Amino acid sequence: VQLQASGGGSVKAGGSLRLPCTASGSVDRINAMTWYRQAQGSERELVAAITIDGNTNYADSVKGRFTISRDNAKNTVYLQMNALKPEDTATYYCKAATHWDHEVGANFGMAYWGKGTLVTVSS
Q1: Residue 13: its pLDDT value, please?
Q2: Is 73 helix (H, G, I), strand (E, B) or coil?
């Protein structure tokens, strides 16, 4: 599975960005697409996830501001980020999971990572 993410950039606080991530290869193995982020000096954290059935998970810090969606026909997942804050500044990574458990918000199978895309939010 290969992942191609894009859409990062620099915005002012309160602005919006949309990050698309397209999967290719053995996409039939994927049961969920997720977005993680890693700020400088911090650990990578889950931002949002969406299963093939449309079940979603969100980090508390982004609920109400970020929306994850997917276009199964295009094998693409989107992270719509609104009302961005400086603390959202991070490198965002797309990850495909083969055994995502929506109830616990974790993957128990193989994971495939895309290259990160940098999001910078200025105050």
Answers
A1: 98
A2: helix
